[in-house]
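Table S2 (text version). Query chain:
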Amino acid sequence: MKNMAAFYADIIECFQKDSQAIQQMFCQGKEVRSIHGIKGGFSDVHNKGRCVVRVLLDNGVEILYKPRSMDNEMRSNGL
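Corresponding structure-token output:
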């Protein structure tokens, strides 16, 4: 439970820090102010309970949060 609570706190902190970028990139400019839900179970759990989760935003948009860098995936896709 302690690991899960720390992981969810990290998700919320990242959301608060990046909410403007999230709004522009994933929400077509629709205002986003808060997270309405977090759902897990989409990948294996690693590194103290961290895993891919689905984050439901208050504007109805759902995004996947991946708790590690996407650098390798971006390089392999030429981004």
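Notes on Table S2: The chain has a mean pLDDT of 82. The longest helix spans residues 2-26.
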